[in-house]
Amino acid sequence: MPYIGHLTDKTTCKKMLNIIYVAGAFNALVFLIINPATHDSLLSFIVILLSTAVFTLIRASDQVIRSTYMKKVLPEHKLYHANRLLEMVRQGITFLSGGIAFLILQDKSIQNVCLIALICFSLSLVINRYIPRDIINEVDASRTPEPKKLTMYHKGYVFFLGDKKRIIELLSLFPYICVVFLNALYPALFTRIGAPVSAYAILVVPYGLGAIVGSMLNTQSWMPTLKSVYVIFGSGFIIGLLLPLFFKNLPAVYICLFMIAFCHSHIRVRRNTLIMTQAESKELARILAFNEVLFICLSTVLSLGLSLIADRLDFWLAWEIVIALNSMVLLLIVLTKNPAAEPCTPMESAAEHDR
């Protein structure tokens, strides 16, 4: 990821998108040809692991590159609205994928998954031909170039934890981490409540619907800071997680998915827009890549740890730990002071431009 961020800051986002879409199509094609199901279990596991790692890198890179592209081509007062639309489109795809997943799970072959991935990456390449080309960031020739390895991580670290602390922006990444590592617990959750496989297959439908509704209603003109947004919607996120713990039935799980997606979309849009408005275009990709590295590392560790707790000890203990972690992050944000000089919020910037 740091290399992706560095390259994105040094070239055009359109070129980087083409590169990762070609890599994704190639990965899907190789997976389709090899067909791990026809080989022994160890080889199948290795192929699936490597292929999944590539897809994870592509997904993370795509988010970094798209956000950097918006920063380059849009005026600041339009970034908030653009992030809302981006979240709506992203979760709309999640919503539609629920129906596709339901159909795919009727066939035990993984070939259909690879075929759909190949088609999606190919379509992305075609669409990318028609988006406007962004400009390459200008390099100040008078500045002494920093060591490449230093800039890859240093830019993100300085942005969040340098002279100007952005602790709230950093902590507000946790719901994003949470919605990913929860995927490791969902199969066991549906088993515990006695839900059928078909109910698990469409779990992305209530989640995607919650995020879409959240994006549509995401104005937040009455909430001036990211902290106020997080206190309200972070609390809603925790309330959603409490529902399966108390009621232990399918409707409670679906309402939980809707609520955490609804609340996460509000936090994510405000957080991303704030980072995009505060960071310089020439450094944004490396800052966002730093974010993604933190996200991948923490979500992986928490997925493994909570899965072990759920399998070896008790599933509901693992779920309670998730709630406790979210409560701790919320408490830390409540106790963290806002910066002495708050920058103009994205909503204020847009309102000022309209006037």
Automatic annotation (TrEMBL):
The keyword tRNA-binding does not apply. The keyword NADP does not apply. The chain crosses the membrane at residues 16-35, 41-61, 82-104, 110-127, 167-186, 198-217, 229-246, 252-269, 289-310, 316-335. This is Qsc4. The gene is qsc4. It comes from the Bacteria. Keywords: Cell membrane, Membrane, Transmembrane, Transmembrane helix. One of its GO terms (cellular component) is plasma membrane. InterPro entries: MFS_trans_sf. It is found in: Cell membrane. It is a multi-pass membrane protein.
